[in-house]
Amino acid sequence: MFQSLNRLNEDAILGVMARYRADPSPLKVDLGVGVFRDANGDTPVLDCVRRAERAVIDAQTTKAYVAPAGRAEFNELVAGLVLGPAHPALLDRRTVAVQAPGGCGALRVGAELIRTASRAASVHVSDPTWGNHVPLLGSSGFELRRYPYYDATAHRLTFDAMIDHLERAPAGDVVLIHACCHNPTGADLDAAQWDAVLEVLHRRRLVPFLDLAYQGFGGDLEADAAAVRLVAGGVPECLIAVSFSKNLGLYRERVGALLAVCENEERAAAVKSHVLQVARSIYSMPPDHGAAIAALILADADLRRTWLGELSAMRDRIRDMRALLARHLRQLRGDDAFGFLERQRGMFSLLGAPPDAVERLRVEHHVYMTADSRMNLAGVLPGNAAYLAGAICRVMS
Ligand code: LMR
Questions:
Q1: Is 246 annotated in the active site?
Q2: What is the pTM of this model?
Q3: Is the CB of 183 under 6 A from ligand 1?
Q4: Which domains does the chain have, with CATH numbers?
Q5: Which residue in 130, 194, 241, 372 is the catalytic one?
Q6: Among 22, 136, 184, 186, which is least packed by CB within 10 angstroms?
Q7: Residue 362 — very low, low, confident or very high, per pLDDT cuts 50/70/90?
């Protein structure tokens, strides 16, 4: 049977991770997979997580199943964190919140839900978008279309072209939008642009699917949820995929949630039944450990305070490294060609290097990034920023 299977190309992001690990050079710089790194290049367990984890283990009396929806208290807390506790969609009880195995699990369950609800719907993703959006959503069988989002040469949004595209999308289609800290560009819509997008989504009866994987990495938790709250209040229906991989550093524990805002309470009950059926048919129930930790941190005032401090330290570090790298590049080049690094937000920016320059960075300088020249700015360290800037200048004259 398996003779029919040809070997696939490696995943664009995970392939870089593997090559970086295999490189013995002490000079190597990891700008690949999206994990936070501290000033030593480590990805530490947050203090709030360590404390919550101990409490979870001490209090645990059973490993019996929880439920396909995961923990009820986690779901409630996540809905409040994302939408704000007084959001009309919550007060009207027309929001469904279901724990999922990471943001990926939430995206995939959302995709299956869309497929169940509408065979005709296409999903529109930004060009460019996170590499895994395409297999995650495309595997559900619908057509994926791309809306123009960013010009990697000019380092700016192609907003007018995005709006033009949405104006022509058929009613009932789904539009996946990064809620903050766009991956891979670091370029987000501003408040006026979100208003304009919302107006088109509403008028054209398009269904937004918001991917919120970096809440707290651009601004604080509230600021980074503003677009989600705006959109969820301005359309009858939307989906939101939430991840705690980055903002709680719970990458390997797979903690996320799918939220669905529905027209009314009755519709929400129907949607929830389908979400649970999808979950049951793919993985049955989400892993519990990370969600138990996240729920405790969200519920406990002291742990939450610790988390907010740690989150803002992560955010500040990435912002500082953006500024440091831009400064070194400015000094070496004598121009501001890379000033956009400082203006963009979150973990990623596109360097704007062609694939052969990315390859030279790897082979000649041990600098690792994906072939589209996406850089994880958390991989820039006080100790490697000057070296990195020099390497970039050598391959991009
Ligand atoms: C990334 O974009 O690098 C992360 O979200 C990790 C992943 O799974 O791709």
A1: yes
A2: 0.97
A3: yes
A4: 10-44+308-395 (3.90.1150.10), 65-299 (3.40.640.10)
A5: 130
A6: 22
A7: very high
